[in-house]
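Quick one, C-alpha cells below. Sequence please?
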C-alpha cells in the first residue's frame, strides 16, 4: 500500500470511534485559562455556601472555606480579598438566581393576577427550599453595617420595578412606588417566617402563599373590581395554623 493511501490514525480511534466535536471542545475549554479561573472561583463560592450555612456568617472563617474548597490560601486570595468578598459573591449568586426565576415565571402569564401569583409563589418557594443558608444571608443583609445591606436594597428595588412594570402594562395606571415597597417588606417578612422553621411543611408554604395572594390581590385590584377574601383560619386551627 502506498504512503498516499495509508490512513493516518487519529486520537480516540483505537476503539473504532472518532472523538466527538463536543469532547474535543470540552478538552480545549478545560485548558483555557479564562474558564479554569472562572471554575475555580465558582468552586470557592459553592464551598462557602456550605460553610456559611453550617457555621453562620459571623463564625465562618477563611480557613473553613479553604478546607471545604480544598484550595490553598494563595489561590483563595487570588480571587477574593477575604470572607466578606466571597460572601458578597454568594449573595449575588443567590439573589440573581431568584430574580431570574421570578422574571421567567411572570413572563409565562398574561393577566396581572396570574403574573403576581406566579412571581410570589416563585419567591416563597425559593425561600422555603433554600433552608439555613438563605436565612443566614437574609439575617446578615438586614444589618445596616453589613456589606450585604446595599445588595438587599438593590434586590428590593428590582422587585418594586417588576411590580410597577406589570401594573403599568396590564392596568395602564401608575401606582406610588411606596405601595410596592410595602408589599416587598410584607413578602420579606413572611419569607422570614418560613426560614425560621427547621423544616417547612407543604401546609406552611401554602398558608403563606394564600396570605400573600390575598394581600397583593386586594392592594393591586383594579378600581371597581371585587376584592379577594382574606384567608381565615378553620375552627380547628390555632393562630399558627396548626390543628388543635
Amino acid at each position: 500500500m502506498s504512503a498516499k493511501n495509508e490512513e493516518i490514525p487519529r486520537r480516540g480511534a483505537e476503539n473504532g470511534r472518532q472523538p466527538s466535536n463536543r469532547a474535543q471542545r470540552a478538552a480545549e475549554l478545560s485548558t483555557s485559562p479564562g474558564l479554569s479561573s472562572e471554575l475555580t472561583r465558582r468552586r470557592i463560592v459553592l464551598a462557602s455556601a456550605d460553610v456559611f450555612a453550617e457555621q453562620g456568617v459571623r463564625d465562618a472563617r477563611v480557613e473553613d472555606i479553604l478546607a471545604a474548597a480544598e484550595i490553598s490560601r494563595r489561590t483563595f486570595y487570588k480571587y477574593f480579598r477575604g470572607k466578606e468578598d466571597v460572601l458578597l459573591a454568594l449573595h449575588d449568586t443567590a439573589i440573581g438566581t431568584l430574580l431570574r426565576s421570578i422574571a421567567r415565571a411572570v413572563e409565562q402569564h398574561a393577566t396581572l393576577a396570574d403574573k403576581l401569583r406566579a412571581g410570589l409563589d416563585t419567591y416563597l418557594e425559593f425561600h422555603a427550599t433554600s433552608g439555613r443558608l438563605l436565612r443566614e444571608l437574609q439575617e446578615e443583609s438586614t444589618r445596616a453595617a453589613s456589606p450585604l445591606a446595599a445588595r438587599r436594597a438593590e434586590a428590593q428595588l428590582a422587585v418594586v420595578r417588576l411590580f410597577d412594570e406589570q401594573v403599568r402594562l396590564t392596568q395602564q395606571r401608575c401606582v406610588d412606588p411606596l405601595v410596592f415597597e410595602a408589599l416587598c417588606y410584607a413578602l420579606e417578612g413572611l419569607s422570614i417566617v418560613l426560614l425560621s422553621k427547621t423544616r417547612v411543611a407543604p401546609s406552611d408554604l401554602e398558608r403563606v402563599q394564600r396570605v400573600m395572594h390575598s394581600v397583593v390581590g386586594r392592594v393591586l385590584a383594579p378600581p371597581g373590581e371585587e376584592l379577594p377574601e382574606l384567608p381565615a383560619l378553620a375552627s380547628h386551627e390555632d393562630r399558627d395554623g396548626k390543628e388543635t
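Confidence is low (pLDDT under 50) at residues 1-15. Residues 112-141 form the longest helix (30 residues).
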